[in-house]
Queue: 3 jobs
Job 1
Amino acid sequence: MDPYCLKKLNQERLARHAAILLTDLGDGRDRVVREGDPVAGPLRDAINQAFLSGTSKVVEIEGRSFFLNVHLPPPRLVVIGAVHISQALAPMAKLAGYDMEIIDPRTAFATPERFPDVRLFAEWPQDSLQARPFDRYTAVAAVTHDPKIDDLPLERALRAGCFYVGALGSRKTHAKRVERLKTLGLNDEQIGSIHAPIGLDIGAASPAEIAVSIMGEVIKAFRARSVQTALRLEKTA
């Protein structure tokens, strides 16, 4: 591999950007294509599909063979709130292969004793998100029931295009949340993408059952992102 391409690919991976190492099998030349980069001709469709599926493969384009080596960021789950639901959710996320972190400024709740082996940030979301911003491979679950803590990360998640955004609360609570988010400049389409009430409708009652419903909904959203992304690509084509 070209050292320049290796350096660029590593930079994209560290920044949690999806990228493909595109190699022309005829002459051995390669280049790095970041998700969203313009690509001309029929190769564009093959690259878009590779980003959607996350599967590396060889493709034949106009008599030439290319190897598409796909590198997608690992899915990340950020939970706003160190509550009982979060305690049950942490081991589920780990088993499902998600990098999970919890943000909660309430130091009485956000303690290592309650959340062993979890990336825990006992600070306000606006401080945490400066160093670790959301991206399209991030799922965000706001579960504190406190607008002072939940609203800002919800706004940031919607603007970042996170593949999943969910918020705990009744429909009445969510209606008030909608009005607050509108005052922050979010439109109806953005706000309408919030999963609220959070989680799959399985009749969950206990914190553990709610955690199951949230994890299931996150996984469903991630697996469906190919459809959502395809629709977005059609709009911008």
Job 2
Amino acid sequence: MVTLTLPEPGHNASTQVVQQPSATTILALDLGTTTGWAMWLADRTIVSGTMAFRPGRYEGGGMRYLRFRAWLDEMLRTSPTLAAVYFEEVRRHVGTDAAHIYGGFLAHLSAWGEQHGIPYQGVPVGTIKRHITGKGNADKQAVIAAVTTRGHAPSDDNEADAIAILLWAIDSQGGVR
């Protein structure tokens, strides 16, 4: 069992072992106020969970991004072999606020990746859904069911999406680009 120490409460994690070789660690993210994450560690273990980045009552909106960067730094500190980050590339949002929040997370992720020399790649939503369910327009429940069928126990759709992104990266990219 692998334990990651994260800087913020609101974290939910699970662990799964995958029988494929890897010399490096890969991080997959479903960016948002509740960010789903999944990591393929160098020992072939998959850990996953969610992390909440909702600002507190008396905080400015930028605090979510400062906590996100601190969380990324902690993930790198606990997994120094981090070689690549894959994230869900969303092209259409239901609301303006969701689009702005996603854009903020993406900006911070890309700046963090550049700062640390870690490659990052967006994966289109349809590609992820097609890979995990066989259908590019599958709904959230179908993605959760498909991830569960592969031996994982996601707590919500955010974690399921992150696991699906990670499985796509492992299966189609050999983990790293």
Job 3
Amino acid sequence: MFDRRIGMFVHWGIYSVDGYHEQQRMRQRIGRKEYAKRMEAFTADKFDPNQWIDVAESAGAEYIVITAKHHDGFCMWDTATTDFKVTNTPAKRDVLRELSVACKRRGMKLGLYYSNPDWNHPNAYNPKSSHQIPPEAGDVPDLARYREYVKAQITELLTGYGEVVCLFWDIPTKVSAPEMDELVRKLQPGIKINDRGWGNVGDYSTPERGLPEGAAFTRLTEACDSVGVQSWGYRATEDYHTLGYLTRAIDKTLARGGNFLLNVGPKAEGTIPPESAALMAGVGDWFRRVGESYKGVSVETNLVADADCIVTRKGNELYLHYPAGLTATGVDLKPMREHPKSVTLLNTGTPLTAAVDVLPRNWDKGGASLHLQGIPADELANECAVIRVEL
């Protein structure tokens, strides 16, 4: 999984019918029976897993992580554990199976998201955790019984849908139950498990919609964000991130050694909104031009004094990343004083001018330093700049 640096996250469920938010039931205070009526309008009649894979590939993504079950408890596969599932909608399709088959055929790896909260299950209420809806009449909170339900579902998911490269538990339970991850590893020995499960630290961290400060990550990390500002699931009136924001967020993650999981929310019919698809394609266009700066590189923390520049290195090639954006057409790489063999703006393939000089702003700050000029900074306002310096 972590040799595949970008993944496509997919939040899809009956919440997409109204196009409000994936946590619609909680945020609009909808009762369980009323919320379940959305099953009647979930058609998936235009769902084509190959179209999803096309969108993923357009972004440079090499794996897809789909919400098998979100907080509402609705299951996107033909489970035997509940009637609250996709095959009981007008779709009458095991969409997860279709996606897994298409991914295998096309060489796209598959990961699964699984929510620990379950607003549909009578035993699932967990006061120690977050994202909980108070029990309804007839519910009997019992986490021991609920764990058995989760184990049954995880067993179905990890035995019936081929290779699963990662399991994305969501919402830490704050309950220690190591047997949950033990079961996952028994069923899929090569799987990676995240850090949001049943009291575990997992194999990797999952910062969401932002990153902790620092240089290179100290453990495996997969950051995630969505193309939409307001929702992870489909939202009819979504505010979309700019391409500049997304490429800078991705760069800041990849340059520090992490993976990035970029989310889209399909409509109830199964299509990815054109605005989302266009942003994914824009990310891919940028990534194909600068991608060499993330492959087989190390993170160098002491070469450049500029706190806004992340430096990665491969042999004699340095890659300068500017996820905070450029503020001028030139950059000062003090304390570097070696004149490079070549300097190239990867975004455009344009050679840049380099000189070792004492700049007026540095006349009393240690002498000469490497200065790069001719960067079309304004032209890069909507994508992250990456510069290759060959020494």
